[in-house]
Amino acid sequence: MRIAFYAPLKSPDHPVPSGDRQMARMLIEALRLCGHEVEISSQLRAYSREASDAAYLDLSKQAEAEIARLRRKWASGGPPDAWFCYHPYYKSPDLIGPALAGGFSIPYVTAESSYSSRRNEGARKLAQEAIAAGARQAAVNICFTARDRKGLEEAIPEGRYAMLPPFIDAARFEGTPRKMQGAARLIAVAMMRPGDKMDSYRMLAAALQLVVDIPWTLTVVGDGPARAEVQQAFAALPAERLAWVGENAPEAVADLLFASDLYVWPGCGEAYGLSYLEAQAAGLPVVAQATAGVPEVVRNEETGLLTAASDIAHFAEAIRRLLGNAAMRAEFGSRARRFVLEERSLTAAAQRLETIFGAFVRRAG
Question: Which UniProt keywords apply (predicted)?
Answer without folding.
Answer: Plasmid, Transferase
